[in-house]
Amino acid sequence: MVDPNQPALNPFQFHECVILTMPTGRTAVNLREMLQIVKEVDSAVLAYHLWQSRMAIAHPEVEYPNDFAIWAATSLQDTRLAEKLSVIDPFTFEDMEEIREELAELLEEYMWDLPSVPWARPGFEFHFCEASTVVLVRPRIVAGTLSEFRSGLAGVGIDSIYYHFMDARWRLRKLKTDDFSIWLRDAFGLPELVSAIQGIDVWFYTLEGVRKAILDLLDRYMEKRDDITPGST
Amino acid sequence: MTSRLEALDPIVGAPVIDQLRRMADRLKPMRLVHINSTRIGGGVAELLIGIIPLWNELGIDARWEVIQGDQAFFEVTKAMHNALQGFKANIGKPMLDHYIDINRSNAEKLDFEADFVVVNDPQPAYLIKFLRSRAKKWIWRCHIDASRPDRKVWRFLWEAVRHYDASIFSMPGFARNLPHPQYLLYPSIDPLSDKNRDLSAQEVSAVLDRLGIERDKPIILQVSRFDSFKDPLGVIEAFRMVHAHTPCRLVLAGGEATDDPEGPRIFAEVQEAAHGEPDITLLLLPPESHYEVNALQRAADIIVQKSVREGFGLTVTEAMWKGKPVIGGAAGGIVLQLRNFRTGFLVNSPEGCALRIRYLLRHPDVGRRMGKFAKEFVRNHFLVTRNLRDYLSMMLLFRSPGEDDRRPGRTVVL
């Protein structure tokens, strides 16, 4: 067990970020247009609608994990398509072109069997956006120990949680890896805790929910350690 | 005395306020100028009243300049406004020349040197033609639904807007084809303003007594101008369907649509439709009745915004902030704000509106839950602090020397 006050070789540096949404001016009013635009737009647009929009604007309960699925459910009123689109986990892909192919293939396959093209009612069109991400280093929030990491995590804004836990999954291009678990592993080992953190299903938590889930895991680890410490001395 | 930032701290949380302070510290010294065409009345003035003191508390040297114009100028800009929203407008060359003249004469009077200038809406848009060198960066913020503008009017405006360094729109569908970065900043509300601040039960009761509204039955409320886009007749129709099943009151509160030629006719129709129904109250409120609107929203059991056409729908945001279940027409930004059974209900007809009102009257617990989520949604996305944060990020981005940093899709570590 690791002492919560044991110093790490390299401290964890918290960052914060702001997603500035940039509308592209392209709009889909039906599924055929959606497919066409998905094939044509810059990959930054897909990234925005697959995960960045979670930081830009997100309802307090997560029902569908990405904007495409939400649009299918709420605008096309096609929950079957929404279910299918929900399965796409961009963080299991190596590059955006693979994601684009998967998305286009799914939409094409789905439309193949439909007798007519589903349309969105006026006001429910899909507006394609992309984003600029501004990342700032937080010099005063540096965690040198497990205990400092816990209090840092509890005190940062949810944009930091997004940056280190969600954005990182794409930035690092490694399945189920994020800044937090990499640091915990490199600094202290902790395979069980790291695996539990990596196992958090980021798609079905709000960012505040992700924070709470990680804090719970850390607390449980530290409590367990407290349980063990008296007996082991 | 508590500063406004300190007062916002318990509402949005310390991390949000700390972040604003950190971002502002990185920008200092920073001279920012907001320009619009009126100091009172209207959403832009309301936004600036709330935001200017916050800038200064953050250490940003912010000024608010208002351009002056004569009646003819405001007639042109009103016509421009309507034309940008897709209505046919006949704006001749003499009118446009007058618009440019007024911008020129204001430019001669305006005295500022700034790092950033934010020009709000079309009225002062041409100032950039005369004052370009006075600021390092010029941002045009369009609050209007310009998704289907009149071509000629847009072409005229484009001639000025293209010189800006960036534009800001309130909804993704409003963005235009422009040769510079375009950003989406949703509108926001100020939780400290008279329209949105917490009120005590006594304050709420006093306002209702003054307005003569009894609280013996559940209150259904719509706050909006009496114009056809807000569909007050549809609300009355829905209310009558509900009233046949369940006792309740309807309050329609708002101003007259004085700049809408249809306004008086619509209000007369609303009066006619409400005639003989003691449980319907029509309130014609003066334009600055923010405190009264706040109290009415807090007293209501269900808030309706049955618009058939809408920009963003800040009245929905305000209602959600009060933790109320909201039923909104599926139009404009209301679609973005309300999600069925979660943050509210979207409806497409008086029947749909009646259906959801009846449901909520029978299931107040579901309404409370939706209201709770709605309030959190607003807290996270539509408060003035988010607006400040987005502006600060833009300023940081534009201060970064790399031209490439402002390309969409980029992650910039500063």
Would you kindly provide a written description of the structure presented here, covering whatever features stand out?
By secondary structure, chain A is an alpha+beta fold. Chain A has two domains: 114 residues, no CATH class; 93 residues. Chain A has ten helices and two strands. A two-stranded antiparallel sheet of chain A has the order 1-2. In chain A, helix 2 runs antiparallel to helix 7 and helix 8 packs antiparallel against helix 9. The longest helix of chain A has 26 residues. Chain B is an alpha/beta fold and 414 residues long. Chain B has two domains: 209 residues, Glycogen Phosphorylase B (Rossmann fold, 3-Layer(aba) Sandwich), CATH 3.40.50.2000; 181 residues, Glycogen Phosphorylase B (Rossmann fold). Chain B has 16 helices and 13 strands. In chain B, the strands form two sheets. A six-stranded parallel beta sheet of chain B has the order 2-1-3-4-5-6, covered by helices on one side. In chain B, strand 1, helix 3 and strand 2 form a beta-alpha-beta unit. The longest helix of chain B has 18 residues. The radius of gyration of chain B is 22 Å and the shape is globular. Chains A and B meet through strand 1, helix 2, strand 2 and helix 7 of A and helix 2, strand 6, helix 15, helix 16 and strand 13 of B. Strand 2 of chain A pairs parallel with strand 13 of chain B.
What oligomerization state is this entry in? Answer: heterodimer
The level of helicity of chain B is 40-55%
Q: How many structural domains does the protein architecture of chain A include? A: 2
Helix-residue proportion of chain A: 40-55%
Please give the alpha-carbon distance between the first and last residues of chain B.
Answer: 35 Å
How is the main sheet of chain B built?
6 strands, parallel
The span between the termini of chain A is: 13 Å
CATH superfamily of the largest domain in chain B: Glycogen Phosphorylase B
Which residues of chain B sit in consecutive blocks of at least 5 with pLDDT less than 50? none
> Tell me, what's the shape of chain A?
elongated
* Structural shape of chain B: globular
Structural class of chain B: alpha/beta
Largest sheet of chain A: 2 strands, antiparallel
Average pLDDT taken over every residue of chain B: 93
* Helical run tally of chain B: 16
Low-confidence spans of chain A: 229-233
**Lateral strand order in the biggest sheet of chain A:** 1-2
Helical run tally of chain A: 10
How much of the sequence lies in strands of chain B comes to: 15-25%
